[in-house]
Amino acid sequence: MQRAGLWTMLLAAVVACGFTVRYANAAAAAAMLEPGTTAPNFTLPSQEEKQVSLSEYKGKWVVLYFYPKDFTGGCTLEAHNFQRDQAQFDKLNAAILGVSLDTADSHKAFCTKENLTFKLLADPDHKVVDEYGVPVMDMGANHFAKRVTFLIAPDGKVAKVWPDVKVTNHSEEVIAAIKAAKA
To answer: Which residue of 1, 46, 101, 122 sits 20 to 30 Å from the alpha carbon of 110, by its own alpha carbon?
Structure first.
């Protein structure tokens, strides 16, 4: 069974046990960004303990991917695939930015352990998660962002959204979308 399938099964089990999948606020529930929308600027800390702003990437493609948790199977596979394809993203003038509700310290340990060189951004207060309309799953005291990817074009507009990411071939899907948009 694919890891993405396991995540879906886990999510179904979590919901069946009385936990909820929720949006952090009512406005976010109706506001997942759509293609053609200007991507909101943000500034978040990275694993390098530096502030990173979306505006720094104007003129580049940006793969802004939200994921549930550092050090978990699906999230590790997704990150490894983006890392594996980093050279292809570089050739396409594309930056990869991962966002989760984990801390910058967690991201630093995750990047070190998994040899990740692209930026992972910490959003523990889910300000950017909410602004982009990404669902948040509540599991008791723990909160996790749903796996969603936004492809942001060099002009700062959302070019494509993947609201239900399957990690196995997601990196390749994003590369294909950039190539198609550039054609």
So the answer is: 1
Confidence of residue 143 (pLDDT cuts 50, 70, 90): confident
What gap in Å lies between CA 73 and CA 147, rounded to an integer? 13
Active-site amino acid positions: 75
Q: What domain range includes position 147?
A: 3-182
How many structural domains is the chain composed of? 1
Angle at 67 between CA 63 and CA 69, to 5 degrees: 140
Q: 3-state SS of the chain: helix, strand, coil percent to 5?
A: 40, 25, 35
- Give the C-alpha separation, 47 to 112, whole Å: 9
Residue 35 and residue 9: Cα distance in Å, rounded?
A: 29
Other CB atoms within 10 Å distance of the CB of residue 27: 11
Element (H, E) at 62: strand 61-66
Number of helical H runs and strand E runs in the chain: 7, 10
CATH code: domain of residue 13: 3.40.30.10
Contact 54, 39 (CB under 8 A): yes
List, in order, residues 6 or more apart from 156 with CB less than 8 Å away: 38, 39, 58
